[in-house]
Design goal:
Helix content: 55-70%
Radius of gyration: 21 Å
Strand order of the largest sheet: 1-2
Order of helices and strands: HEEHHHEEHHHHHHHHHH
Shape: globular
Number of strands: 4
Structural class: mainly alpha
Distance between the termini: 54 Å
Length: 386
């Protein structure tokens, strides 16, 4: 018990666990989650396993984290840098529609041989930096609805480009991130109600004009999943079977029949939580959520101790981004949300999102380390609209 108390104090101390340029109190939960994901996607000798490639991506992501955390990343607070990231994200998303080949019906990836890059992952980081910069100067003025509209337009442009791909899952993530940032900035209940009405109107417009037929079918299947379990409701139905069959202790690592026998589609990415729950059971899921809770708690602690408003908002934005992915991904696997094709942080197979996640932790670590000697940026000329 004394050891656990000491570990808890170290984990959530103001100084954290900085060593070799990194913060192990952030790194260890992320690394553990990544390894659990690799165990889940591994077929233990099967030719179809993507575990070796994911292990290579993890090594690359760790190097990027350690490299970024050693650097002084305070330059990301500057307006020209923030705007350059945002413009680059717009250019990459627009280029997808012109040059990318469709994969699974969506123009969401640039493919370079064995390597694929999803610009939406980079766009998330760009949006977080832009919102953090905007709100760091205007959170005290958030009562002015004009600032909510301006910040919302920044997010809306990215969301529309992603919807055109089409990629409903990431579009929802972007919307949740923006709304979460508005909430932590102190938006009023009146303005929140107005946003709710606007959201309802936009959802109605999307239903009749924006959504593809298969996307509407997925939502209908969510309302009545038993209506077509061999068609549009198949994925959600198989995911629920996988989660339920795990019971208390699971079937054992590598023995998940729903995933390894391919009854559960995309079990390495969009439904990896269901595959994990089948093999590890309720006990494993509790461990998984505990690791996410440790990571989120540490991010919240870093945000509270931040020396600049930008650092605090950026860290909270990363927390909101990760939490949105976890909530939506697990909600889909449990049949609580319609299927939208959303990854879960650190666990899902794929390189671009894993690199983004570790890079964002590296930026947070760098800002926290170098922020100790930094002063608040009070340059009144640094505005982002409005």
């Amino acid at each position: 018990m004394n050891f656990l108390r000491k570990l808890f104090r170290i984990f959530f101390s103001a100084g954290g666990g900085y060593t070799y340029g990194g913060d192990w109190t952030l790194l260890l939960p992320a690394l553990a989650l990544s390894l659990l994901g690799i165990l889940t996607i591994s077929t233990f000798g099967g030719d179809a396993s993507s575990a070796p490639r994911q292990m290579l991506w993890l090594a690359v992501a760790l190097c990027i984290y350690l490299g970024i955390s050693r650097l002084d990343m305070s330059f990301v607070r500057r307006t020209p840098v923030v705007m350059a990231l945002y413009v680059l994200a717009l250019a990459l998303l627009a280029s997808l529609l012109l040059f990318a080949d469709p994969i699974l019906g969506a123009r969401a990836w640039f493919s370079f041989g064995l390597i694929s890059f999803q610009p939406a992952d980079f766009a998330k980081l760009a949006l977080l930096a832009l919102l953090a910069k905007y709100l760091s100067r205007r959170h005290v003025e958030i009562g002015d609805f004009r600032h909510i509209i301006v910040s919302g337009l920044y997010a809306l442009v990215l969301i529309l480009l992603i919807l055109v791909e089409p990629d409903m899952g990431n579009a929802i993530i972007f919307g949740v991130v923006w709304l979460g940032m508005m909430l932590v900035s102190g938006i009023s209940k009146k303005h929140l109600a107005v946003l709710g009405l606007i959201g309802l109107a936009v959802a109605s417009l999307l239903w009749f004009e924006g959504l593809k037929p298969y996307q509407r079918t997925r939502i209908i299947s969510f309302v009545n999943p038993a209506a077509d379990i061999h068609g549009s409701g198949y994925n959600a139905y198989q995911a629920k079977i996988a989660v339920g069959s795990g019971e208390l202790f699971g079937k054992g690592v590598g023995y998940g029949t729903q995933s390894k026998l391919r009854f559960l589609p995309e079990y390495q990415t969009d439904f990896i939580f269901a595959a994990f729950a089948e093999e590890w059971g309720f006990i494993g899921v509790a461990l998984l959520f505990s690791l996410y809770a440790l990571l989120f708690a540490r991010l919240a602690q870093i945000a509270r101790a931040a020396v600049t408003n930008f650092d605090a908002f950026f860290t909270l934005g990363v927390l909101i981004l990760f939490a949105a992915h976890v909530a939506i991904h697990t909600g889909i696997s449990l049949g609580l949300l319609p299927v939208t094709g959303t990854t879960i942080p650190f666990m899902s197979s794929g390189g671009s999102h894993l690199v983004l996640e570790f890079a964002s932790l590296g930026i947070i670590t760098s800002l926290a380390r170098h922020g100790r000697v930094a002063t608040r940026d009070i340059n009144a000329n640094e505005y982002l609209g409005g």
